[in-house]
Here is the input.
Amino acid sequence: MDEKRIIAVVGATGAQGSGLCRAILNDRSGEFRVRALTRNPGSDKAKELARLGAEVVAADVDDGKSLEKAFRGAYGAFCVTFFWEHFSPEKEYAHASAMARAAKRAGVKHVIWSTLEDTRKWVPLSDDRMPTLMGKYKVPHFDAKGEADRVFTDLGLPVTFLPTSFYWENLIYFGMGPKRGADGKLEITFPMGDKKLPGVAAEDIGRCAYAIFKKGNEFIGKTVGIAGEHLSGAQMAKALTKALGQEVRYKDMPPEVYRSLGFPGADDLGNMFQFKRDFESVFCGARNVGVARSLNPSLQTFEDWLAVTKDQIPIEKDSRRAAGE
Ligand SMILES: NC(=O)c1ccc[n+]([C@@H]2O[C@H](COP(=O)([O-])OP(=O)(O)OC[C@H]3O[C@@H](n4cnc5c(N)ncnc54)[C@H](OP(=O)(O)O)[C@@H]3O)[C@@H](O)[C@H]2O)c1
Here is the structure.
C-alpha cells in the first residue's frame, strides 16, 4: 500500500499548480504524492502529468461537489483561482470560497491559498489617485483574492497564505515583453517609475509551496510572501539587454496612460502597477526573497531565468532595419 500522503493541486495544468506537481513528482523519495485536478483529464498536459506519475482527477472550481470529492483523502490542498479566464472578481471570490468549503468538508490537514493583497486596505474606494473599477474594486484581480483570505480563516482551516509575485513569464505569454519604440529600439513598459517590482519564475512558486507542505505545522496560520528578486524596470531592462544581446530600454509611463492602452484588463493592471509603485515598501516588504530561497534553494534570479528562457521571449523584427533604413 502507498503510504504517501496526497497533495491535491488545483490548476495542476497551469503555471503555479504544474510547478508544484513537478516539484512533488521529482522528489521520488519524498513523503507526498500528487493528485492533479483538471477539468479535462484527457488534455495533453493532464496526460503528461499522469505519465510522470500523478493521479489525475476531474474537478471544476464551479462545482463544489467535484472539489470536495477531489480533496477527500488528501492531506494537503493547493488552491489557486483563475482571474484571467473570466475577468470577474465575484467569480474569483466564489471559487476561492468553494475551495475553502470543500477543503473543510474533506478534512484537509494543510491548505495553501495562493493569494494577493486586498489593495483597498491601502487605497480605499474614496482615494481617487486611481479609479474604482467594477463598482467596488481598485485592483479587481488582487482585491477579491485578498477578500477571500477571510473565508479560509473563518472556516478555521489550517491554512498558509501564499502571496505570489509578478511572473517573469508575463514577458513571454502576457504581452509584456520588449516592444519596438518609435526609434525601433526595444523597450519594456511598466508604470512603476524607479520603484522595484517583485518578480518570480512561475515554476518557483510551486517549489516554494512544496517546501511549505513539507514543513507542515511551521507554516500553518502564517503568510509567506515570495519573490525571486525585486527589480526596478531599469534593472530588468539591463538584464534583458545582456541576455538578448541587444539594447532594451525601460520606459516609464503614467498609470493613467497605461490604463487607457485598451487591451482587456489594462485598467486593472494600470491600477495594480500604480499600487506596487505607490506602496513599494509594503508590497516588496511582503515578499521576502530570503525566505523564498530558504524554502527553495534553487530559486531563480531574473538573470538565471533569462538564461533558460531568453529564446522564448517574442521579439518584434526591426522593420526599419528590414526596410533597409
Ligand atoms: N501572471 C502573473 O504574473 C500572476 C502573478 C501572481 C498571481 N497570478 C494569479 O495566478 C492565477 C492563475 O494561476 P496560474 O497562472 O497558475 O493559472 P494558468 O497558468 O492560467 O492556468 C490555468 C489553469 O486553471 C485551470 N482552470 C481554469 N478554469 C478552471 C476551472 N473552472 N476549474 C478547474 N480548473 C480550472 C486550467 O486547467 P484545466 O484546463 O486543465 O482544467 C488551467 O490549466 C490568476 O488568478 C492570477 O491573478 C498571476
